[in-house]
Structures
1.
Amino acid sequence: MHAEQIASINAGPIRVSADGRHFVDARGRPFFWLGDTAWPLFAQYTRQEAEAYLSRRAEQGFTVIQGVLAWGGGTGFETPFPGPNYAGHVPWLGDPARPNEAYFQHVDYLLRYAAERGLILAMLPTWGYYVNDAKTLTPQNAFAYGRWLGARYRQQPNIVWINGGDRIPTGCEETYRALAHGLREGDGGAHLITYHPCGWRSSAQFWHQEGWLDFNMIETWTQWPKVYPAVLSDTLLWPRKPVVLGEGAYENGPEYPLGPITPLIVRRQAWWTFTAGGFFTYGQDQMWRMGPQWTSTFDTPGALQMGLFRKIATSRPWWRMVPDQGLFDSGVSCERTLNTALRTVESDGALVYLSSQCHVLLHLDKILTKHVKVTWVNPQTGEERDGGTFATGNLTGTVFPQPQSRWFSTPGHWEDAVLLLEGVQ
């Protein structure tokens, strides 16, 4: 369990930073979103299973858990009406405008339990099936339901609202808009709101200019080679809003045309998202599906390596970094083996992700100090190696800097690598 994440939650609901690039807590401290997908958390996990899951994810370094309040089995498996929770309570008493108090008492408990462990619960009021397909929600009852939820949880600090639910809003815009406006009226703007679309879409395509959309969420599903351009394009929109890859390709997922989804593919998705200026939500296929022995999947390699991802990414002032592919003189590659980079806005440091065994030529003169210290980090294991200290060509006493580029190669037997560049005088 990370003391800083508990402190952030206790400081109040997260907000969008003044520059629109990232999240902060109520005290203005940068908040690092590392999400996990547990769609059936409120509806199907027993209390004991939910406690075990939330505790383990907090220990692993996750900060946000995505789950659905009115859940019916997931896309392609939905029941005509949202199913009951482990205790037999359904979320609605026949109509979304009539929430079931017994059901939401369990939600109350899980919110408190998560808050004690420093976790934010990013909650979908409903799966999109009940808007687009079943038409259970209308603009009228969606607004009433949203307002009830917002008012009930107005004082609960560890909440983010996710509108949508694996659907595009086309043809149902007024219902989704009413749900968002109800949430906002109910909680008085206490919590952030986003929208979860379906495969290879972004909330920005539908809602970016709407005032209730506080940050963008992307789903790429099987299109994992497109993660970097998808995230980067949303970070460039105006007004600037944080970007979360809310659903990529799940670890061990069997149904992906671009599979298998190995821990390496999981890491690539996370690092591409981060180096494009966004935030990542992980998912484990059998865990969210609650497949046979699903509770044994809490410690899969991908999940454990997400903790390393956060540790490496936050070891530097990540909130002062911007995407900069200009660090590459050669070897940037593309698509499935894309290499990516971040640079601090002061140009006194950088982070480079090499997604495969490769060679890259880097512009060391992009670092505006006299020398740069290089450290290799293995994102699979956390192992660090000294990469040497080199002249950058800057501060030489001449009128113009001296261009300095240097080749770097992924260390032998590493699947991928992170290079940390720190400016030194």
Note: The first strand starts at residue 15 and ends at 16.
2.
Amino acid sequence: MEAFIVAARKHYPRSGPRMLRARLVAKYPGRDFPSSSTFGNIIKRNGLATVRRRRQRARVAPLAEPLGVAEAPNSIWCIDYKGDFKTQDGQRCYPLTIVDAFSRFCIRCEVTSAISTTTTEQIIDEAFREYGVPATIRSDNGAPFAASGPLGLSLLAVWLLRLGIRLERISPGKPQQNGRQERFHRTLKEATASPPAPSLRLQQRAFDHFRRDYNEERPHQALGMKPPGTVYVPSSKRYPCGLIAPQAPSWAQLHVVQRDGSIRWGRKRLFISSALWGQRVHTDPIGKTTWSVSLGHLELGHFDEAKETLRFVSHRRRRAAHYLEL
């Protein structure tokens, strides 16, 4: 039995005692295995233990408006670009990952050579076609998920909003608010990029192999030592689905955002955001010379007609800084 456990540990060098035992129990249901603590003793006795130093993290105050809680599969998808690295042939790799927050199921793990809106949208589109549409997508504040315009809206964010998806963004500089994704990236790096593959094509092959093992075989402690694939189910909201048209009050003035991101205001142009090109925004008077500019119920800013200035809504003081939905 000890020789069998040692051989299994060498085959799964990154599996701890509890996970290794769960793997073997699932693979050989008819065999009687010792406890997890015995597994740990055998691993240490044979010099196969891995000692890791945990980095101390500074304590941070909780947000006044906490992020949502994943209560079922597809209630929240977490999306992020893992830190880039070079493959052995010198090509830059930017892995894009999508993970279901409830089941930890890895929906996508794709090699990209650069971060772009087009590539990101294509990967998300493929994920929607295979698994359906989630209720919420959580990301950081980097491109292409957010931009410097009103409410941090980017082209990608506007597309997701119009699909009826609620957007969450973590606070800047606080990746621990998306801790499951960060932990997944650490596991991904250890398993597939230490060292990196010889090329991008072989790196994608390593990602695909890891994803199959992670979803279908690798036990997860938060799931009662079950693989994520046994918990995850596709979304009931199928894709493609129609785009939502933001609703405006009947008395408001409608404006179509031009290609350059501006709307017509009399004989002049008022710049709103290039991310809203082709969308309908509406203006509503809130004073003698002041107008509210909104996309659906999302207030973008206030326009002072006398001063000819547009003041965008402060991200820090608005609830929409963390939550966005039309």
Note: The chain has three domains: 2-45, 77-230, 253-318.
3.
Amino acid sequence: MKEILKLSQQFWSLFTSKNRYIYIEALMAIYDEYLYNDYFLTKETCIQIIAEHFADRIVDISADDDDTDVDQMEPMATKIMNRLIRFTWLKKVEDYSSFRTNIVIPDYASIFIEVFQKLINPDNGETDLYIQNIYTNIYSFYHDKKAGMELLKTASVNTTRLNRSLQDMLHNMDHFFGSLLNKQNYEELLQEHLDVYVETIVNKKYRLLKTSDNFYIYKNDIKTLLRAIREDESRLQILKNKMITEGKKEEEVENEYMDLLYDIERGILNMEKRIAHIDTEHSKYVRATVSRLEYLLSNDDNIKGNVIALLNLMSEENREDVISEVANIIQINDPTLISSASLYKKRGKRKVFEETVETEEPVEEELSKEEILQINRSKNRYSKAQIEQFILGKMEKGIYRTKDHAIRTDEEFELLILAYDYSIRKSSPFHVVPGERGRITNGKYTYPDIIFERNYSS
């Protein structure tokens, strides 16, 4: 906390400024060049970098002007740099020997700038590095008798970071469910699923759990090594002898050693739980997507589609004419439909001593959004055999590409969507070849260029 208190009060002005995004962009532009120039840049170079970065747009930072500013007539790039120096995000260092002013980025500012970069361009490969580093550190500690406690500490730190990455991944999957209900047609929903969910989660972040070089392989080896280290008393004795010579007590060394092993083991267990949750959320999302697609694909070729279209039309504003027309046309032949017994009532618990005690009837709780989705989920109109026949019947040498066989009917379009979802299952006799190949438009149908390949092992 003492180090944070050393920061100038002006440092936090960047976050409260209305032009903070402009300043952050300028800082990252300078930082990218700063790393490759021995960690210092001249004042003129910084101004040139800022000017080139904003050359293609008009920038206005007049909202931060005050009476103390003496650079009102200066170019915009100079004003931005002066503000960053005043906010103490940049620092001037005078080089009197060469008669020039250098600009440096203080260490505290560098930490914040790196955070900005991770927020804008997250490193999707970090999770792979963490699990590999954990395995490497523990393996090296076990086989290298000269290794110290630092390897276990590094493994513990990487375990914590990987758990945090998995937790962020799990939380980021939640917003995909909300986006499903906002899509009003199947084209938008399919594009959202393929371009956003599949590209972001499956191909980038979720690949940690699906690639051949993944968490599951390292997990078992890490557990085996930790068990062997814990049972190897001679290894602990070597470590004690080494650290006692450095001035540490034997009891402190053993406690720290056991605590580190416990932290790593607990971290691995937490990873397993989080990955299980991610798998569950992934399955729920896929099921909800297919249900939503089936709902949007329901049209006037069945009763359900007609009812949905009619209800959507009646729910629009100022459509009393439609409601009146429906009321005149609809026929109710069954007298029980208009009796009081047919009306829906929320049921409460049975009253006790009803003749003497008046109690308020508790009502049933409202259904959650997930329960409503579960109740409204419709069954597939096509069997697995029909879906498999649709794909396998079009394959040539075990390959079927959608651009070679145009989709012409609603039935073919629905089967294509269901086949894509079916391809990720273990029991599927075919799978989708990964890769982005654009989209195909054929009349009213728009769908991605997908390649299905047969699984000869199934």
Note: The mean pLDDT is 76.
4.
Amino acid sequence: MNKRFLLRISSVVPILLLAVQPLRAETSSDSDRIAKLERAVEQLQQRNTELEAEVKGLKKQTAFAPVPAEGPTKKQVTYDGKTYVEKNVVVPEKLPVYVVPRGSEIKLTLGGFVQINFEDGDVQAFEGRFGSNALKDRFRLRRARLNLTGEFAEQFDFKVEGDFEQSDGISSNRTDFSGTDIFVNWHQYPEAQIKIGQWKAPFGLEQLTPDTSLYVIERSLPTGAITPERQIGVQLWGKPFTTAWPEQKDLLTYYAGIFNGNGRNVSINDNNNFMYVGRLELMPFKGKILGQDSSLKLGGDVFNSRDDAGTNISPVLTLKVNADGSLSSFTLPGADERTAWSVDAWLKLGPFDLIGEYLEEYVDGRTVNGMSPGFADFTTNGYYVEGAYFLIPKKLQAAVQWQHLNPGQKGNDGIESITGGLNYYIHGDDIKLMVNYIHTWSDFRQANPSLGGDNFDEVIGRVQLMF
């Protein structure tokens, strides 16, 4: 009903009032009153006719008006063999996709990250992969991980993570999904938490630094050769001052763990002995210097393990010195006892970071059931020093690292490298571009020139995406 229709109805009201109003006898006769009533009736009939015509017009408009469809619509063109017909049709609404937790978690997070490398030159020569172990130029899916973390009201948290980059056990040239971190942690008391499952044994600052937060693309050779990496076991750890001295809760952190000692994703122990690992972290200063966030962290580690023959004591990177000076994984020909220790420091002054770590390991053979170990005792040690500085705050960072490893198995078998790199943070560590140039030289090959070149160069580029 439009505005004109309402105006016409309102005009009828005065006529009706006029028709029913008593006429005063002193001014009109009966004939006059009858004449006035007849005129009023004629006017009412005329108005009624006009209103009926208006109503018919409105009905016609309503009959031809399109009825709005329920829900979203889209245009659909059909062909009946003669003409094309276009009309609006209702699009069925899709139900939203959602995930709900099966258990009573108060927090459940799905995440992961991807790291893709381009490696050119003497690929991974800084790990001792040259000579007979040399690798070719390549694109490399360095890490592709998915993880699920969660927390329960009962003061438990957990993590389940796997990596598509891991070897599938059929061929070292293939990849398949393999577990990395799989653990449950009871954190009701921050001073004394209990963790059980598989994760990185608490040894080595660089090893414990997340892969996505490193300032250079790959960890140093001493870290890969000496640290025990991921193990299966149980750990007591915590921050003793969390409740008693909250403002200094990070002053001291301790870790004490017992592990199988023969690597990750291995369901059996190599013997009835365990690996014992401990770490202390001290943060004597955390605050502002010249208005910049600054801190100093110091750390120390120790581990001891008794291993049987066949145990790989360097599964992540290389340790055994080959005849041509290159390095490969060290699988024990006989039983041993390993003891290692390390110290580290990390100084942060606003945009500047300075990191250093020294590691040392003693590998001593053991005679078991009359069987000699089959190798000579040796001591492996190494260190790295690393610096990083933001040329453009939170965007462009320059990094440099010097590293040295002495495998201790042959005379002059040391390997040294210097790395220079740039990191561009598109969206923090979530989206990051990295490029490194690495120059490596071998003391053993320099002392034995007949083996070939002793200097190696490599360029590595990386794209990192976290989600």
Note: The CA atoms of residues 19 and 41 lie 8 Å apart.
